[in-house]
Amino acid sequence: MSTEKRPPLDRARVAGTALKLLNDVGLDGLTLRAIARELDVKAPALYWHFKDKQALLDEMATEMYRRMVADTELDPSDTWRERLLKANRGLRTALLGYRDGAKVYSGSRFTGLVHVEQMEGTLTLFTAAGFTLAQAVRATSTSYLYTLGFVIEEQGVEPMPGERREGFDVAERARLMADFPLSAAAGAEIFQDFDQHYEEGLALVIAGIEGRYAASGPGPCAPHA
């Protein structure tokens, strides 16, 4: 029987172990039983810390955010456009670091106020640039939802970098759709070059934000008194 002293079982250790296991088994295989086995404890021990799997996913998403913030440096002198680019690129990079990372993050709620400082700073930046608070919220949440949705679809094709799911062969897709030439050719635009397509889409979102709110009266392009 091992006499090695193990670190105490707490929320941080469970969530960290779950994130490591996620890359091996994916979200569908991430059961409380599997996590308990990895921790060398009985599954009921986890219920002292998380009432159900969603509570664990919430903590995992929160830990993902902590790590993302640590790796994403935001400059108070950013323009609102620069802030959207940095924040969303950082989010995409963080989500791609985990198998099903975007699915874990989607629909989860933070378990503390870890996000509030960055959120307050971003909203302050936007309102100082001439956005109303409502416009600032809409701009940041729309770009966030674009990134989250993009990565969910991206990971549906490539669960991990360099790994491609069966059934997403672009050439085979084009062959099957030979009678529909535009749809056949679109496969290369949908299922390849994700980095380029993400950046193009993010640029479209930012241009749309500027066009919409600049045209609606006092807003991000108006001089600030």
Radius of gyration: 21 Å
Query: On the 0-100 scale, what is the average pLDDT?
Result: 91
The proportion of residues forming helix, as a percent range, comes to: 55-70%
Order of helices and strands: HHHHHHHHHH
What are the low-pLDDT stretches, counting only 5+ consecutive residues below 50? none
Number of helices: 10
Class from helix and strand fractions? mainly alpha
- Biggest sheet details: none
Distance between the termini: 72 Å
The number of strands is: 0
Tell me the strand percentage band: under 5%
Overall geometry comes to: flat
Can you describe this structure?
- This protein is mostly helical.
- The chain contains 10 helices and no strands.
- Helix 1 (11-29) packs across helix 3 (53-71), helix 4 packs parallel to helix 7 and helix 7 (133-157) runs antiparallel to helix 10.
- It is flat.
Give a quick set of tags describing it:
mainly alpha, single chain, 10 helices, 225 residues
List the SSEs and their pairings.
Blueprint (H helix, E strand, L loop, with lengths): L10 H19 L2 H8 L13 H19 L8 H17 L4 H5 L10 H13 L4 H25 L12 H7 L4 H10 L3 H21 L11
